Amino acid sequence: MEKLTPREREIVLKQGRRKVLNRGQTLFNQGAKHDGIYLIESGRIRVFYTSPLGREITLAYWRAGNFVGGPEVFGGGIHQWSGIASSNSCVVQLPGKELRTLATEIPNLAIGLIEGLTFKGKCYSALAQMLGTRSITQRLAHLLVGATRQWVTISLKRMQEKQIVLTKRSQIVICRPDVLEEMRGQASD
């Protein structure tokens, strides 16, 4: 959207439907019919994949200025992953048919979509490469360097609630190494 003129932005947003989501509310589900994209106006959307065994992997957190709902931005097919609001959010849904028409009429929109999909492709490629080629120590180091303090705190809190670890001021005590080992094995499945 940043490449659009004010008039182009107005035209695009006029075709969309605004939706307000509370934290934890689902935006779209993996396996559901795909139709267009969601422009994030405020808040944050977590996109994640759920395996047939119910294990989840977070693909990314997207903030205002990004879109979610790809890769089939013009609709068709099914969602390959799910999206939920990780904070109160406002999005504008642009249905696939309308988005395709707009992309033919507004070259800056088409360029923005291509650039957005390119960026997302690079992010997901880096995630796949990291999971497939790095040791657990390397993955942890990468995640800790790239993770927000909030993400680390939330993850540790979840593990503490399950009594897997105990966090003290400057220590993390592993209470259930067997569970951590099982989690490690699941991550490589």
Topology overview:
Layout (H helix, E strand, L loop, with lengths): L5 H10 L1 E5 L4 E3 L8 E6 L1 E7 L5 E8 L3 E2 L13 E4 L3 E6 L1 H10 L1 H27 L2 H11 L2 H13 L3 E4 L2 E4 L2 H11 L2
Helix pairs in contact: 2-3
Structure description:
- With 189 residues, this protein is of the alpha+beta class.
- The chain folds into 2 domains: 6-132, Jelly Rolls, CATH 2.60.120.10; 135-187, no CATH class.
- It is built from 6 helices and 10 strands; from the N terminus they run H-E-E-E-E-E-E-E-E-H-H-H-H-E-E-H.
- It has helices spanning 6-15, 96-105, 107-133, 136-146, 149-161, 177-187, and strands at residues 17-21, 26-28, 37-42, 44-50, 56-63, 67-68, 82-85, 89-94, 165-168, 171-174.
- A 4-stranded antiparallel sheet has the order 1-8-3-6. Strands 2-7-4-5 form a 4-stranded antiparallel sheet.
- A hairpin with a 2-residue loop joins strand 9 (165-168) and strand 10.
- Helix 2 (96-105) packs across helix 3 (107-133).
In short:
The chain has six helices and ten strands; from the N terminus they run H-E-E-E-E-E-E-E-E-H-H-H-H-E-E-H. The protein has helices at residues 6-15, 96-105, 107-133, 136-146, 149-161, 177-187; strands spanning 17-21, 26-28, 37-42, 44-50, 56-63, 67-68, 82-85, 89-94, 165-168, 171-174.
Keywords:
10 strands, 189 residues, 2 domains, alpha+beta, 26% strand, four-stranded antiparallel beta sheet
Biggest sheet descriptor: 4 strands, antiparallel
* CATH topology call of the largest domain: Jelly Rolls
What ranges have pLDDT less than 50 throughout 5 or more consecutive residues?
A: none
* Helix content bin: 40-55%
Q: Which structural class do the helices and strands define?
A: alpha+beta
The CATH superfamily of the largest domain is known as Jelly Rolls
CATH architecture of the largest domain: Sandwich
What's the number of extended β-strand segments?
10
In the residues, how many domains can be counted? 2
Overall mean confidence score, pLDDT: 85
CATH uppermost class of the largest domain: Mainly Beta
Strand content: 25-35%
User: What sort of overall outline do the alpha carbons produce when their principal axes are compared?
Assistant: elongated
Listing every helix as H and every strand as E from the N terminus to the C terminus, the arrangement reads HEEEEEEEEHHHHEEH
Discrete helix count: 6
